[in-house]
Design a protein that fits this description.
Blueprint (H helix, E strand, L loop, with lengths): L8 E8 L2 E8 L2 E9 L2 E11 L4 H11 L8 E4 L13 E5 L16 E2 L11 H5 L13 H11 L4 H6 L3 E6 L5 E7 L2 H14 L8 E4 L5 H10 L3 E4 L5 H10 L2 E4 L7 E2 L2
Parallel strand pairs: 3-6, 4-7, 10-11, 11-12
Antiparallel strand pairs: 1-2, 3-4, 5-6, 8-9, 8-10, 12-13
């Protein structure tokens, strides 16, 4: 039986000038996250557009970043028989050991976010701030390490090499050791996958540095401080709200980072 699991990229036929050739584009499909705990049946809590792959990590990381629970009991693809075959791998159920600490705000319409939207599930900035976790107390990367970190991620950005259409996030130690790298069409999804990888491996989510391949918005800083990250290193620029939250949460924030420069904002 043919595997219906969607791949991270798809082949397309393109024309560049007078030349026709095959190319690859990044896959973007919905992922519905359902939540259940003892005595309560699974319920939909979020839908996001993502790049298929590491779906369980994405769901587990999202649960942690939303302040729903600090860890998860398990994650599995949904076995709901009412699902169409093509949606079989687009719905996951996260199981908790007990009732959640909080639930994302439920709007009257479907709770959903685009691949560019990371904080859409929060009813307001103030509710997102409530998920800020403890501050990192360990060492932070020195400036020379900070400048090396974006290049340290590049060997593991295989989807970007194929498509040019994804963001990357990586967790690194103060010495610059890259612990985990994940890619996704959504920058917030890539960060969720990084934290989820740690959660599902039974490892701490807190670490010295989170590295991201693009700009830094409020939602990425919120996820970093919830996970207990000590600093963020971004290739692009931060937003005003990202800087404000980083300052408030004690997160060291670097932007415009390359081998030649880095700008520290907090």
């Amino acid at each position: 039986m043919k595997d219906r699991r969607p791949g991270p990229s798809v082949r397309v036929r393109v024309h560049e000038g007078d030349v026709a050739r095959e190319d690859r584009v990044i896959t973007e499909e919905p992922l519905e996250i359902r939540l259940q705990w003892p005595g309560v049946p699974a319920r939909r809590v979020w839908v996001t557009m993502r790049t298929p792959g590491h779906d369980f990590e994405l769901a587990a990381g999202w649960v942690v970043h939303e302040g729903i629970a600090p860890t998860v009991h398990g994650v599995a693809y949904c076995t709901d028989t009412s699902l169409a075959p093509e949606q079989e791998f687009n719905v996951v159920t996260v199981t908790l050991d007990g009732p959640p600490a909080a639930l994302p705000h439920q709007h009257d319409a479907l709770s959903a976010g685009s691949s560019a939207c990371g904080v859409c599930g929060s009813d307001s900035v103030s509710s997102a701030l409530e998920t800020v976790g403890r501050r990192w107390e360990g060492p932070l990367p020195a400036l020379d390490v900070v400048r090396r970190l974006p290049d340290a991620l590049r060997p593991q950005q295989k989807l970007f090499d194929r498509t040019g259409g994804v963001h990357a996030a990586g967790l690194a130690t103060a010495d610059g050791e890259v612990l985990v790298v994940r890619e996704d069409v959504g920058r917030h999804n890539a960060v969720d996958k990084v934290t989820g990888a740690r959660v599902l491996a039974g490892l701490p989510t807190a670490e010295a540095c989170l590295v991201v391949s693009g700009r830094v918005g409020f939602e990425l800083v919120q996820k970093a401080v919830t996970a207990g990250i000590g600093s963020m290193v971004a290739v692009g620029a931060p937003t005003s709200l990202a800087v404000a939250l980083a300052e408030r949460a004690g997160l060291v924030l670097h932007g415009f980072t390359s081998a030649q420069r880095s700008v520290r904002y907090t």
